[in-house]
Amino acid sequence: MSKKSWGLSLLITFVLLFTASCGQSTQQTSSKPTIKIGYLPTTHAGVLYLDNYTYGGEYAEYNIELVKFSSWPDLMDALNTGRVEGASVLVELAMKAKVKGIDLKAVALGHKDGNVVISSKEIDSTKDLIGRTFAIPHKYSTQNILLNEMLKKDGVKYEDVNVVEMPPAEMPAALSENRISGYAVAEPFGAMAVQLDKGKVLHQSDDLWPNSYCCVLVLRNDFIQSNHDATQSLVTQYVKTSEIAEQKDQNLVDSFDQYMKVEKEVLDLSLKWISFDGLRIDKDEYNKLRKSVIEMALFDNPPSYEEFVDNTYIDKAM
Ligand code: ZN
């Protein structure tokens, strides 16, 4: 091969390599984002289960990967450090993260209602809980606020009950072993005690706080800001699936099977206590929640509605 041919073939090789590398980078930038969403296995993330069960996590503009956690602190750590882009999470925990400087936005509710206060059978009224141990999943939770509302309503001081934090899955066993006298928790862990005949419903959440807010779908704002189209598609899809979830048909039951181990009778009871429709975060309701956080001195300066809630996407989805 002549020197000229060598030069020419080198040039062609270089051009081919350059073109290939450009092609590769274009493909990467136009590829769909995979959005990791953290959850705990409770009925409260039911819309995400049904959606993933129906579509396999693959959509035109994005993919979703649901990431299971067994405790709220583990989930929050992953969210705070960016190991997941979003989560179905207790609203108070997300508000607290926002206060600590983690830029999260709540784009929809996870559900409404869906919490019960369970007690052992010998507890006849709230006053019987004085001096007893009562479990909540986390200090920063709607279950803690519901407990406070119940105690206030029945004239019992919060300090007169020994309130402890406990992972949700432990609560039914703790009640049956008399380590606790009651608990407030996400489903299905309330219905489990009732089904096992170890506990009873002392209060429904809507007796204490109608349409109570509990879990929200949050996304990291850095993700939202660089993925507006994917965020819009995700929220639109989420709203569509929430309306189907509210029908509580066999598809929903089947989808729960993929994410939680729960008996049919327990799930049927749990599903009576929760609603999945109307998931736009309303300002007045959010402010009620914010007021409770302040009243209970859970943390200082809970974020304002404007700081914390982004309804841009849900408003275009409905
Ligand atoms: Zn919830």
Question: Can you put this structure into words, describing what you see?
Answer:
With 318 residues, the chain is of the alpha/beta class. The chain has two domains: 34-112 and 214-317, D-Maltodextrin-Binding Protein, domain 2 (3-Layer(aba) Sandwich), CATH 3.40.190; 115-208, 3-Layer(aba) Sandwich (D-Maltodextrin-Binding Protein, domain 2). It is 47% helix and 18% strand. The chain contains 15 helices and twelve strands. The strands form three sheets. It has a five-stranded mixed sheet with strand order 2-1-3-11-4, sandwiched between helices. It has a five-stranded mixed sheet with strand order 8-7-9-6-10, with helices on both faces. Strand 1, helix 2 and strand 2 (63-68) form a beta-alpha-beta unit. Helix 7 packs across helix 12 (264-272). The termini are far apart. Mean pLDDT is 89; it is low at 1-29. Zinc ion (ZN) binds next to loops.
